[in-house]
Design goal:
single chain, 87% helix, mainly alpha
């Protein structure tokens, strides 16, 4: 019983450590994304993406039939908007992933605290029966 309580406590400590690592990594990832999309801020990211998406969609509707028919090449603006939409979409994904990792870190810390407390409780419970 004591061995089980020690193992449970060690797993809890490992979960605490991973939770702390996840939270710190998520914070630095979000900051790196914010730095890479300057002058757009994280607060403006969704709105800017939707604007570019609408512009690129309208331009695609106008140019795509000619491109598919082989009678025209994509314009510079079409290529620019496509690349900008892709970059902003990846930035949105990275921000969402950083939020997920932060949430996972918080859950890991909570699970770790619970496991450590359960391990201590099991250890005290096993001592009372010895």
């Amino acid at each position: 019983m004591r061995l089980c309580s020690i193992v449970v406590s060690l797993v809890g400590v490992a979960a605490l450590v991973f939770g702390i690592i996840f939270i710190t990594q998520a914070g630095s990832s979000a900051q790196e994304v914010a730095d890479s999309i300057q002058p757009v801020t994280l607060a403006e990211l969704d709105g800017k993406y939707e604007t570019v998406k609408a512009q690129q969609g309208a331009m695609r509707a106008a140019e795509e039939p000619q491109i598919q028919a082989g009678t025209a090449a994509p314009s510079s603006m079409y290529n620019y908007l496509t690349i900008q939409r892709t970059a902003l979409g990846l930035a949105r994904t990275n921000v969402g992933l950083a939020g997920f990792v932060r949430t996972s870190g918080i859950l890991d810390i909570l699970v770790g605290i619970g496991l450590v407390l359960a391990g201590v409780g099991l250890f005290k419970h096993s001592q009372s029966y010895s």
